[in-house]
Amino acid sequence: MSANYASNHQTPLLQVKNLQTGFKIDGDYFNAVEGVSFNIQRKQIVGVVGESGCGKSVMSLSIMQLLPAGIGKIRGGEIEFEGEAISKLSDKKMNNIRGKDISMIFQEPMTSLNPVFTIGYQIQEVILNHEKISKKEARNRSISLLKSVGIPRADKIVDEYPHQLSGGMRQRVMIAMAIACQPKLLIADEPTTALDVTVQAQILELLKSIQEANDMSIILITHDLGVVAEICDEVLVMYAGKIVERANVEELFNNPKHPYTDLLMKAIPKMDEDVEKLATIDGLVPSITNMPQVGCRFSNRCPKAMPECMTITPQLGEVAAGHEAACLLYDSSWPSGEKRQKEREGASAV
Ligand code: SF4
Questions:
Q1: Do 233 and 306 have their domain in common?
Q2: Contact residues for 300 (Cβ-Cβ < 8 A; gap 6+)
């Protein structure tokens, strides 16, 4: 990164502008991410939520430029990191950023850790890729990193192989690798999904403490709003490749606006409720080859759908201070939206 950009603390750390990412299927491209825009500020933790197939992971792989070669492609928009456009950088330049300024952890560490190398070797590789230090120094740093993520007997574990560790310990190793070069942005894609509830809470706590200690920003990708409530500052809700709602975490939980968010909330298990009564959302996210071209993409599953939802595409707009949603219920330019707006105004005037 140039000193010019690095010193400009007014610039958001990451700016995603009208991102469109597509996949080639039978010779044609179909967008899995469609016109997504958002900023990540320094030291901020932003949760990205939505069911599988909503474009969350494709969006994060686009930021990292880790889309499958020849199949996935950024087809439009821009991604800026510290003010510098990175979506068209060469592999070599992107390699300098990946692992150093931006790093990523995945859901299942066994797919990211190499089973034939020791834990220590794999952490040292990350460090030696970006820093000119001796192997001994890199090994000592690996041990310190393992200690910092709560691995007991770090000086022994450093010489062990991934299969010798539990799932929770492997995820801690992944976190140690991801923070080895003190990145400014960590993208965590479903980092706790494969773990049991107790370990999940410990990993979230660990991520939060590392974020505070290192002044790092985190994008936390998850299908679980409960995880978001634990550590995020702001939330983006994605559905069928688009952002449908955005607010700070308190506002979103107290005042969800989009019917999709409302249903996701109802699907969060509550301590005092019978799990058999948990709400589910009927139907499926449309596949990328079968995306509605006009109208609201949630219309075939939405309990509040109106006739115009099939023909008018809702745009993301402010529905309360600092709170945005893409839903015609809140768009006063259309008859049903206007009617509901008046009803709301009438209700609040009483
Ligand atoms: Fe439901 Fe219509 Fe709003 Fe879409 S625009 S979420 S279908 S009410």
A1: no
A2: 283, 286, 292
Distance from residue 256's CA to the centre of ligand 1 (Å): 14
* Atom of ligand 1 at shortest range from CA of 308: 2
Q: How confident is the model at residue 193 (pLDDT cuts 50, 70, 90)?
A: confident
Would residue 283 count as lying in a domain? no
Which residue's CA is minimally distant from atom 1 of ligand 1?
Answer: 305
Q: What are phi and psi of 278, to 5 degrees?
A: -60, 135
Ligand 1 pocket by Cβ (under 6 Å): 258-259, 296, 298-299, 302, 304-306, 309, 314, 327-329
Q: What distance in Å separates the CA atoms of residue 193 and residue 309, rounded to the nearest whole number?
A: 34
pLDDT at position 300 is: 94
Supply the range of the domain harboring residue 11: 3-240
Give Rg (Cα) of the chain.
22
Average pLDDT of the segment spanning 46-66: 95
Q: How far is the CA of 257 from the centre of ligand 1 (A)?
A: 11
| pLDDT one-digit tens code per residue, 120-173 | 999 999 999 999 999 999 999 999 999 999 999 999 999 999 999 998 899 999
Measure the CA–CA gap between 330 and 257, rounded to whole angstroms: 9
Ligand 1 atom 6, closest CA: 327
Pocket test for ligand 1, best of 257, 329, 331, 333 (most atoms within 8 A of CB): 329
* Mean pLDDT of the chain, nearest integer: 89
Give the predicted TM-score (pTM) of the model.
0.89
**Domain tally, the chain:** 2
Domain assignment present for 274: no
- For residue 29, give the nearest of 88, 89, 74 by alpha carbon: 74
Please check whether residues 61 and 81 belong to one and the same domain.
Answer: yes
